């Protein structure tokens, strides 16, 4: 971290301010640091990396179109690439909850890159010692605005994190659930609706439902990535390409695509891109839906593994840690509980992004820092939670076949197989009698003289599934 016992003086449009002497950021970042001591949270590495890519690409294109001298451009490119690699992360100090639209974050990047570029050209980060310096606005921010670069960086970071982390984790979860479905397909058990006994099914069929749900969510989240490829660089402050070379927008997006290997493109309507955060809002809605389904699946697994002596106990979860400080030997479904907590956070995050999305006014959305932090954190914790769910829980699930068999044979819902031949009313009476007298369905049918080969076939669970 940067020691702050020594300072240098810097000037901006508001006057003088003291900046830590070895800080690569400058006056505007320092003002933001002092103004917004809110959470201690910073925008993540993936966002800073995207900022570095944008600044390097912009410098290269501005040089190619003759707007930026070659020596300055090359220094900016080198400094920005160092930012991309994480070399100056400690100097990104602005809180997530900052001035609207993310101007402070953009200036944090501009100032770091400008000072580092000045240093690369033989100057000093102490401006009083220089006859010339690379300027954060005039040079590093050339042809740019916070209003086009900040949402572009958000989309770029989201694309990388979804493609490289979240989608692979979801794919692994789907595959492992399908593996369990195949492994458990021979096991008969009672189904349950309203948490009460229902007709028989296979344990593998139950798990196939989970696998199918996750498969559909993979496709849905994958589909949300495409709109994120739209980055409105060249839209500048409000969508008009003021202070940019006519070739800049197309060239800078092409350069970013080359650097990231992703097919970024200009939006169909730059003004819409500047006004709204459509793609992040849509992406967050899909993440919320995934969270809802994960809560259902993990809640089911907690129920199915409940016990081990006084619950359903149809499956056994791998033990990962002791579950009680007072009850020796107790083991809880810790991984499933963790996933449930993460999903609760995701649902809250979606509400935050929806509310921030509604706060767009006229030409921009000033809530962009909140949207960026929330979406990127949601992707990150979901990817971590899903990966942990696979490796520390799903892979190690075992079926308790004898328990499944016992519950199924005790289920009065088997009487459903008699309904086509005996009618709903009579079969209901048979089921109720078995329940009241605490007898099995077979016992009641024998006592009523209704048992026959045809009846045995009708209530055979193998035929029902």
TrEMBL record:
Domain Fumarate lyase N-terminal: 15-348
Domain of life: Bacteria
Keyword tags: Lyase
Domain Fumarase C C-terminal residues, every copy: 414-465
InterPro entries for the chain: Aspartate_Ammonia-Lyase, Fumarase/histidase_N, Fumarase_C_C, Fumarate_lyase_CS, Fumarate_lyase_fam, Fumarate_lyase_N, L-Aspartase-like
PANTHER family found in the cross-reference section: ASPARTATE AMMONIA-LYASE
Name of the protein: Class II fumarate hydratase
Natural source organism: Alkalihalobacterium chitinilyticum
Source taxonomy: Bacteria, Bacillati, Bacillota, Bacilli, Bacillales
